[in-house]
Amino acid sequence: MRKMVALTSIKFPLLEQYRQTYNPANPQCRCHPHHATIIEPRNDCFHRSETLFISFAGGALLVGGFTLTEWKSTFTKFNLQADTLFLTDPAQSFYLQDSTYSWQGLKYYRSLIQKYSKLYKHVILIGASMGASMVCMCSDLATLSIAFNPILDPSLTSSVMYYRTLQRYPKTIILKQVQTNIDKIMNENQQSILHVHWSEKSPSDIIQLKLISNQNVIYFTDVDKCNKRKGVYFWLHDCNTHVLPQDLKRRGILTQILQHHLNALV
């Protein structure tokens, strides 16, 4: 179904009602719907935790997956009281298409992150592939952003799923916003942290990496080096596949890397 939505723009109610899934840490909270096309932040919810995880689902959707709560199992590994918001993009449009299909996704999601950042002490964004693209596009608004192999120029990929995005926007739309955010985080001395993890031996991902100027590249060797308290960091991993999180998970270090990133918030 997701492939049909991406290619035809036909809406499927089942996918639309799971655009957003909200899981409060406090089991007493009934202030929000569990899942819906849009879940509005509630100023009057007193059950909130200090931290909100926001997951942007990504590339798994393109290969027949039906992941509505991507990163959910990973979040359970951390001893952290946090609410979670899982986001999906049925149109496979890098979240540039919103729920009204009017191509206002970037404006909508940046506004959404801004609202949540006023309600929570910490807002943490995470995503891979297409989801990582929107993580980077909102990184200046969050406390901590973690991205794996973001796609910054869809025209450099071989997937036909992105042709509608390229028809609607110039191919530089994602890259420009990401570069703006990186420059802002690095030059305006704000407290936001952005970690971007790349597969060093994946040619299609390294092409995307080289689009960014002013890089702070670190060859990953030790999880203990992942405790960075502010700034932008590009991590190169000894990996030859686009699905970097799965590779790191198989090697038993994904959770450790994320935990060290989170430790910087303490």
Descriptive key words:
globular; 266 residues; Alpha/beta hydrolase; alpha/beta; single chain; 31% helix; Rossmann fold
Please describe what this structure looks like.
This protein is α/β, with parallel strands linked by helices and 266 residues long. The chain has a single domain, classed as Rossmann fold (3-Layer(aba) Sandwich). The protein contains ten helices and nine strands. A nine-stranded mixed beta sheet has the order 2-1-4-3-5-6-7-9-8, sandwiched between helices. Helix 5 (130-137) packs across helix 7 (173-187). This is Alpha/beta hydrolase.
Low-confidence spans: 1-8, 60-64
Portion in beta strands: 15-25%
- Helices, by number, come to 10
CATH topology: Rossmann fold
As for the number of domains, it is 1
Summarize the helix and strand pattern as letters: HHEEEHEHEHEHHEHEEHH
CATH C-level class = Alpha Beta
Tell me about the biggest sheet? 9 strands, mixed
Count the E strands. Answer: 9
Describe the strand arrangement of the main beta sheet, using strand numbers. Answer: 2-1-4-3-5-6-7-9-8
Structural class: alpha/beta
Give a brief rundown of this model:
This protein has 266 residues and is of the alpha/beta class. Helix content is 31%, strand content 18%. β5 (122-128), α5 (130-137) and β6 form a beta-alpha-beta unit.
